[in-house]
Amino acid sequence: MKSESLRGYSLLSPTLLAMVLGLAMPLVVLITLSFWIQDYLDFIRTFSLKNYTDFFQKPIYIKILFKSIRMSGLVTIATVLLAYPMAYFIAFRVKHNKLVWLILITVPFWTSYLLRVFAWKIMLGYNGVINSGLLSLGILSEPLEFLLYNPTSVVITLAHAWAAFAILPIYVSLEKIDRSLLEASRDLGENVFMTFMRVTLPLSLPGVIAASLLVFIPTVGDYVTPALVGGPRGIMIGNIIQSMFGKALNWPLGAAISVMSMITVTLMVCLFIWGTHNFRKRVA
Amino acid sequence: MEAIMKKEDIIEQLATGQMSRRQFNKNLMALGATMVMMPLGSHMTQAASTDHPTVFTWEGWEIPELHKAYIDKHGSSPNIAIFADEEEAFAKMRAGFKVDLTQPCTYKVPIWYDAGIILPIDTSRLSNWPDIITSLKTIPGTVINGQQYFVPTDWGQTSVVYRADLAPEYVNNETWGILWDPKYRGRLAMADSLIDGVMVAAIYIGAKNPFNMTDDEVAKTRAALKEQLPLLRFYWGSSSEMEQAVAAGEVVAATSWNDGYTKLKSEGIDVKYMNPKEGAMTWVCGFCLMKDHDPAKLDKIYDYLDAYMSVESGVYEIVEYGYGHGNAKAFEAVSPDKLKALGFSTNAEEMLASGIFQAPIENEPALQAMFEEVKAGL
């Protein structure tokens, strides 16, 4: 028994080591840092809760954190709603060469993330594709300025940039559904819509949950996209953290904000999983 | 750099409607290919030249034309790393990024000295040192305990570049106030920076010393920034982003350095560079030798410095960028007509004395926190 578990750990050891060095250690450093205080160029290395009291007392951090969560929530909803029909189409309508379709969907994701953000700048820009198209068709006389440099353009860009992470898990869960269940539902008199609501959707929920988490968690902390397309009002919590570790030169406060946003995101995710769990129970 | 140029071309052609769909797709593909290849390219040069020093500098000052003598002697450029501003550079170096030379501006030298990251420079090893403009050699804060911690190589202004065709009423009324003009709501841009952004607001509200403000002046600056926020298209982080927007007419007026104006002007765009009645900001940048430098590369480090300080580099910087150069003889090598066309009507000393000289900012972290709060809408 003992040697068996030892063998298990030794099999795991490369991964375990990578996880400890790459994930657990930095996390410990970050948490330690968040209890120190920045003093001009140095740290005061004694335990202090000052950064956390700052976090709760100054309105900026909580405000921006909730704004980021709201924006990521919108991104998640938009991404899942757009990804679901695509995944559904491939799972149920495509009969041959499914792999080709899946590869085609991931093609935009072979380029760098930054390039996709820039592509959206070209799409939405003042002289971008949408504006110049509408201008040349005579629909507009002046370029639209509200397309770029605001929170909406951040949501649009993120929703596209993370689409593949939503399509693939939803596709997998749809693909796994036993087709005879759908037939049974129709045979027993349910219409197409009710079959979808009572059979397909509940059975594909694990994929939807995975997709939502895969999109929601990383986008809350994103700072590149808001920096490039967000304009003066589009900043998110990632930009504040970046500034703390850069221009504002207050690493401990930046660490405390990071820890607080991690905790908040974890709570949001728990709430979400609990909510979908109840939903599934109710539908079933 | 190349990818950015490509993007500029695409946007310009789109703007003038000269591009067909096929051409557009082709360009987009080229843009994609360059962008994908870029990290690979820079990675390879880094791996290939471990015997060269690393120079950490601003975008635009890394080009081979500004250190040609170094390439002639050592075969290739040194390793280059780019920062968007000194705060970013400082944070990266604090986090363990080891470089040999950096190119900050004078207002950062005292803080970097306090942080113990810079070393004195032996000017006797620099053949071009005697030709450096005398007044630049003794800027307060750059000579500490009689030792030279900074080699001045570049100087210029921070002012407003604006479209004279779109805002003609400002041609004979040049003021920082254009950046607060509600008429141009959504078509103004300011640098995302303390020294080139927040200090502009401080000058605008009439702070006695923008770099050492009273509490009352800080409150007024904050109010001015808040008032300006809804009028801005964006805070620019990279100057090419700002230049493209001004070229397209998307932005009417923006804070800029001389090179932004020179580039836009040479593209045939009707822009002007302000001499605001409140005074333009002037600055001097140059090199610091880092404590973390590799002593084995010291000869090459001094060769790079000397190459950058040469008349040849100076002429290029003056003519192509419209910046001042540290070498006095570089100005003698450019024709007086050309200098006049570039806006160098007076000599360096007078020009530097006429503006508001960028000094170290007091209470920087508090001002940065204030700026973040304004951006967050508070």
Compact description:
Chain A has 13 helices and two strands.
Please provide a written account of the structure.
The complex is a heterodimer of chains A (284) and B (378). Chain A has 284 residues and is mainly alpha-helical. In chain A, 35% of the residues are buried. Helices cover 76% and strands 2% of the residues of chain A. Chain A contains 13 helices and 2 strands. In chain A, α1 (2-34) crosses α13, α5 crosses α7 and α9 (179-187) crosses α10. Chain A has a single domain (53-283), classed as Orthogonal Bundle (MetI-like fold), CATH 1.10.3720. Chain A has a two-stranded antiparallel ribbon with strand order 1-2. The longest helix of chain A has 35 residues, at 59-93. Chain B is α/β, with parallel strands linked by helices and 378 residues long. Chain B has 3 domains: 2-46; 51-155 and 283-353, 3-Layer(aba) Sandwich (D-Maltodextrin-Binding Protein, domain 2), CATH 3.40.190.10; 156-281 and 359-375, Periplasmic binding protein-like II (D-Maltodextrin-Binding Protein, domain 2), CATH 3.40.190.10. In chain B, 44% of the residues lie in helices and 16% in strands. Chain B contains 16 helices and 14 strands. Chain B has helices spanning 2-16, 21-48, 68-74, 86-94, 109-114, 134-137, 194-204, 215-228, 239-248, 258-266, 298-308, 311-321, 328-332, 336-342, 348-354, 364-375, and strands at residues 54-58, 79-83, 101-102, 118-119, 143-144, 147-148, 151-163, 188-191, 232-236, 253-257, 271-273, 281-290, 324-325, 356-357. In chain B, the strands form 2 sheets. In chain B, strands 1, 2, 3, 4, 7, 8, 9, 10, 11, 12, 13 and 14 form a 12-stranded mixed beta sheet that branches. Chain B has a two-stranded antiparallel sheet with strand order 5-6. The longest helix of chain B has 28 residues, at 21-48. The model of chain B is unreliable at 1-8 and 24-48 (pLDDT under 50). Classes of the chains: A mainly alpha (284), B alpha/beta (378). The interface between A and B is large, with 38 and 43 residues.
